[in-house]
Design brief:
Largest sheet: 8 strands, mixed
Radius of gyration: 28 Å
Distance between the termini: 109 Å
Strand order of the largest sheet: 9-8-17-15-16-14-12-13
Strand content: 15-25%
Number of strands: 17
Structural class: alpha/beta
Shape: elongated
Number of domains: 1
Length: 479
């Protein structure tokens, strides 16, 4: 057999060498570009003033930690430094919006244009949910309540005039922040496209509302028939705008509220605003980018309450309308959805015709006088904080003295939904008091008696009525 001659290795030709040189050249050029870019970026991040607050996330950002040897040797100090630099990137909000945009580009979208945020759980009704949690329809207040009259009250309030959802307070069993309370009571979040616009919707997980019922009945027992008590528990937007395909994840807020009303003392008036708002659901009664109703939605609720209370009520045509453009609220921040963030809306509020004849007084949460001021005011960046237009937020007690002379004095005990109500009642009551049940340090029963209140309205959205916010009602009643 003839041996095959071994072929010598083929020499690499001119074209191969040319290709290698070109590749090498591109590598050198890339390095020459990237090294200065990284270097300049590092200088930018170190030298340029860092962000202190995120408007789209509705919170204050991390602070540079104070040094201590204990934290240093435990690693806590360096971990907090890392958190600080990660959290306070210069121009953070714009970078966040860019990130939402990239997520949208590479995300998967259905033909329905519905995006689910979180992991919603299928629910049937409040009763089934309570049974699963070991509760029954007639059970007492929620199991997680702590001593109502704790003496170890601590506060961690931050920027109450600029950031509603970053407020925190640990007073007995009071919830830490409104945002956390909503996350606890809700069942996920979806973003839907409706009538050409994107809308954020919180899914409602349900609940018995036992704490709310027990507290209102106790208030009536304490105050007697000298004070007329009203209960208003509006729903969130998901009651009206949730696509049918997702109804399995959402408890009927109408049925939940009706169940609560059926267990209230017969002397307490139920102000049923859910069907009223349903009749106006083709109007802009809920914000698309925020978890609150619009001031227009609050107008229809206030009108319903005025009718129940038998007081005069001014038509909205007599109000001065004020528009805040390009508003983007809490749901846009929580959902981190590029479409919802970009689809801003107009926030419109209404100033009553007798506003100049009314005086608004402010008090701290212990009822110490802090002076008079405007009921309607601009706080921070209006395109993010428009809902703070009413009284500047929640952490104060407010009294409005109107030009009405009918001897009727109204107190509104509320969560943030109730902030939009008082302005519509300046022509209905002689005096209006506003108390947030999360931020009140005195005994509310005694305060009501001292001020000669004749009408007491509890205005809390369904989430609050069945969630931890309701526990605060008995705290302020007994503390």
């Amino acid at each position: 057999m003839e041996n095959k001659r071994k072929q010598p290795p083929r020499k690499k030709g001119f074209n191969y060498m040319k290709k290698r040189n070109v590749e090498h050249g591109f590598s050198v050029i890339s390095l020459m570009i990237m090294i200065p870019v990284f270097f300049l970026t590092a200088i930018f991040l170190l030298v340029v003033p860092r962000s202190e607050k995120s408007n789209i996330e509705k919170r204050n950002l991390a602070k540079f930690p104070s040094f201590s040897f204990q934290d240093y040797f435990s690693g806590t100090y360096t971990a907090k430094i890392t958190e600080y630099y990660d959290d306070t990137v210069p121009d953070r909000d714009n970078f966040k919006n860019m990130g939402y945009g990239f997520k949208s580009v590479f995300g998967i979208h259905t033909e329905e244009e519905v995006r689910i945020v979180g992991k919603p759980v299928a629910v049937v009704n409040d009763t089934d949910k309570d049974k699963a949690n070991g509760k029954t329809e007639g059970s007492d207040k929620t199991e997680n309540k702590t001593d109502k009259k704790t003496d170890n009250k601590t506060e961690n309030k931050t920027d109450n005039k600029n950031n509603e959802t970053s407020k925190s307070e640990e007073t007995g069993n009071k919830v830490n922040t409104e945002k956390d309370e909503y996350k606890e009571a809700s069942n996920g979040l979806i973003v839907v496209k409706h009538d050409g616009h994107y809308r954020g919707l919180e899914l409602f997980g349900g609940g018995s509302g036992d704490s709310y019922v027990a507290a209102l009945n106790s208030f009536h027992s304490d105050l007697g028939d000298s004070v007329k008590i009203y209960s208003m528990t509006p729903s969130t937007a998901s009651e009206y705008y949730l696509p049918d395909a997702y109804s399995q994840y959402n408890v009927s807020q109408k049925e939940t509220v009706e169940s609560i009303a059926s267990r209230l003392d017969s002397a307490i008036s139920f102000v049923d605003v859910i069907p009223v708002l349903e009749g106006h659901s083709n109007e802009e009664i809920y914000l698309r980018t925020d978890h609150h109703w619009t001031p227009l939605g609050a107008y229809y609720a206030a009108q319903t309450f005025a009718k129940a209370a038998g007081v005069e009520f001014k038509d909205i045509s007599t109000y001065k309308k004020v528009d805040i453009e390009n508003f983007s609220g809490t749901l846009a921040a929580w959902a981190e959805d590029a479409n919802l963030t970009a689809d801003t809306e107009t926030f419109s509020y209404y100033i009553p015709s007798n506003y100049e004849k009314c005086t608004t007084y402010y008090f701290d949460t212990a009822c110490n006088d802090t002076g008079s001021g405007n009921f309607f005011c601009q706080v921070g960046s209006p395109e993010y904080n428009a809902y703070l237009t009413f009284m500047g937020g929640d952490e104060q007690v407010v009294k409005v003295k109107t030009d009405v002379k009918n001897g009727r004095k109204l107190m509104i005990v509320k969560d943030s939904y109730g902030n939009a109500l008082p302005g519509y009642l300046f022509g209905s009551f002689e005096e209006i008091y506003v108390v947030d049940m999360r931020y009140f340090d005195n005994n509310l029963v005694q305060y009501i008696k001292d001020e000669g209140v004749t009408d007491l309205l509890f205005a809390m959205v369904s989430f609050s009525a069945v969630g931890g916010n309701a526990d605060n009602l008995d705290v302020i009643r007994t503390q």
